């Protein structure tokens, strides 16, 4: 795996993947975060995982006290990270959470399904099949509270985002944006291609935790009929 490390101020560094994002590459960053969590070095303040980066905040005074002034804290942290990348990740007993997300594709709930089919030269049925046959990994939560960025999307479904964003995308909308797919957890603007909608609530403000999904979870989209969607929606209400 190729990566670069660059400073972010005088108390943080960011590790960034240089190769194309995929689950295997993302997993390497996740393993580094798990290693930091496991060994908890004295100099570590916090780490912030993202989709293609991991930012590490450190205490330069502790580093200088431990290693002296021969090298800068930045140089020491870079060397520590390079060493940790080569280590075997710690064994974890945590089970990966797997969630089925019911989706009603097309129609008023998936207004862009026909456009996606036309762009990809597939039938709407083939788009639905390709989109729902994979198990996706939640790379990160971002953009909006509870919004999951998912991979890896079948290459046949890669499609540019809309050139003109919608001012309103209903909560539960399932979309494709470029090389990824995701679900809008809240009503919001958006420019992803909307191919369906789920009656499942992905974000509840008063729940603990409020987000149904977190980084590392695995999800599968399960096609349902409009009648099933209505039934599940009414149960939720």
From TrEMBL:
Short name of one Pfam family: CT_C_D
Transmembrane segments: none
Database matches in Gene3D superfamilies: 3.30.1360.40, Cyclophilin-like
Presence of keyword Repeat: no
Keywords recorded for this protein, A-Z: Kinase, Transferase
Coiled coil, from the record: none
Molecular function in Gene Ontology: kinase activity
Keyword Transferase part of the UniProt annotation: yes
Protein name stated in the entry: Kinase
